[in-house]
Structure formats: C-alpha cells, structure tokens
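Example 3.2
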Amino acid sequence: MFTGLEYWLGLLLLAALGVLGASSVIVKKKPEAGELIDRLAKVSGWVGLVSALWGLWVLIGALRTLRVISVFPLHWLTMLATAAVLIGLGFIFGYGMVTTYLSAEARQKGEQLRRKLLGYQLVLGYVSLGLVAWWLLLRFVF
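Structure, written as tokens:
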C-alpha cells in the first residue's frame, strides 16, 4: 500500500470492511462478537464512503507505480487487489451516504450495481481480512 500512517489507515479500513463484509458468518461462529459488530455497523456508511475514496487513492498509487510491476509484481498486484476490495466494499457500505446527492437515473444505476456487488459481499469480506494478514506479513517478514 504505502508507508507510515497511510499503511495503517489502509489496514484499519480493510479490517473494518472485512468484519462488516463477513459479519453474518462471524456472528454465527462467535455470537459474542455481535455487539461489537453492531457498533461498527452504526458507522458502516462512513466507513464505506472513506474506504471507497481511499480505494481510489490506492488505485491511483498503483497505476502511478506501474513501472515496478517487473521488479515487485506481487506487491503491485496486492495493491491492485486492495484497491478493488476497498472500492467494492466501500461502495456497498457507503452507497447510502451519497444517494441523496444523485439524480434519479444515477440512483437507479447505482442501486443496480450495488445489488450485483452484494452477491460478493461475503467473499470480499474474507478477501479483505486475508489482505490484512498478507499486508502484515509483507511488512514484518519481507
């Protein structure tokens, strides 16, 4: 992703999105986690909006550093996957925050896209949590 504060912000957003995305399975396996997830769900719109914007920033960073793909292909692909997950889950959870500012036609198209993405919410949640583990591994092992 990036370094310093940007790195930790990205990890925090990925972790929050992962928990929100996989919340149904997490609560089934660990019912005591339900209270914590409910607290996080109250701010899911903001988490989603910030994550989608952050995902666009990560995507821009990945595209700006496209030249390093031959040197660090795994790192670059991980950045791309991170951007995709942040944008996808961010859109799912943050869409409600921006609907009031959209035209009726844009709202309809956005809702269609959101419905399509909802089918991938659980998978994206797991991928998000996996990316958190992967980024930590890259940071501390490699």
